[in-house]
Amino acid sequence: MKLQEPDSLLVLEANDSQSLPSHKSILFVPRRDAAKELWEGARSGAEGAVQLTGVDEAYDSEDLYQYLNKYLHHNKAFVVWYDHRRPTHVVFHNKYLADFVTSNKYGFTENPKHLIHNIRLVKSESEIKLMQKTCNIAAAGFKEVMKFSQPGVSYFFPFLVCFDSIGQNPILPLTLLHQGPSVI
Q1: Is 175 exposed, middle or buried (0-12, 13-18, 19+ CB in 10 A)?
Q2: Angle, nearest 10°, between helix axes 156-166 and 125-148?
Q3: Beta-carbon neighbour count of residue 43 at 10 Å?
Q4: pLDDT digit string (tens) for 118-164?
Q5: Which residues contact 72 (CB under 8 A, 6 or more apart)?
Q6: What is the Cα–Cα distance from 135 to 16, expressed in whole angstroms?
Q7: Alpha carbon distance, N-terminus to C-terminus of the chain
Q8: Which of 18, 32, 59, 135 could form a disulfide with 63 if both were Cys (CB 3.0 to 4.6 A apart)?
Q9: For residues 87 and 97, is the Cβ–Cβ distance under 8 A?
Q10: Nearest-CA neighbor of 31 among 4, 3, 58?
């Protein structure tokens, strides 16, 4: 099971001078609120987030600003890997992170996107097998669609037939459905 809560943030605290077990994962999640949970769904809260995800520590999102200021006070040189120029969640960024990033007296902020993109180039054996399986499923679907392709047949119908006949959900080809008959 994975954590799917908005307004959450994962802090990976690393220490170059120490080995891996000394690193920490800290998750900041929205506080449990029975009234909001009636409308928005259940929340894990800080206690549930540790059990659900296995992070070392979890706190309420409102505690993030205090945590960052405490970290800033106790650490004199560090790098914050965060894309502050294009934050994913602008409201969350403005509320909790903007001041910390701009007042970062002892360290600097580095955009991690180039590192993440480089990591995506390296695939494990299991990732390669999964990608091959995905391609095989897509190829089987396209072959099935091509059986029904002929002049005058709507391009939407073959996709539905294809996915009914191989028992898959129509998730992958939705982007193709909107591109017109030239796709087939």
Answers
A1: exposed
A2: 120
A3: 21
A4: 888 888 999 999 999 999 998 888 887 777 777 766 555 545 544 44
A5: 100, 103, 104, 105, 106
A6: 40
A7: 37
A8: 59
A9: yes
A10: 58
Instruction: Tell me the C-alpha distance between 122 and 103, whole Å.
Output: 35
Reading the block at residue 101, the tokens are: 């990033």
Average pLDDT over residues 66-90: 83
> How far apart, in whole angstroms, are the C-alpha atoms of residue 31 and residue 47?
10
For residues 27 and 39, give the distance between their C-alpha atoms in angstroms, rounded to a whole number: 23
Q: Hey, what are 158's tokens?
A: 């073959």
What's the pLDDT tens digit per position in 36-63? 888 888 888 998 999 989 999 999 999 9
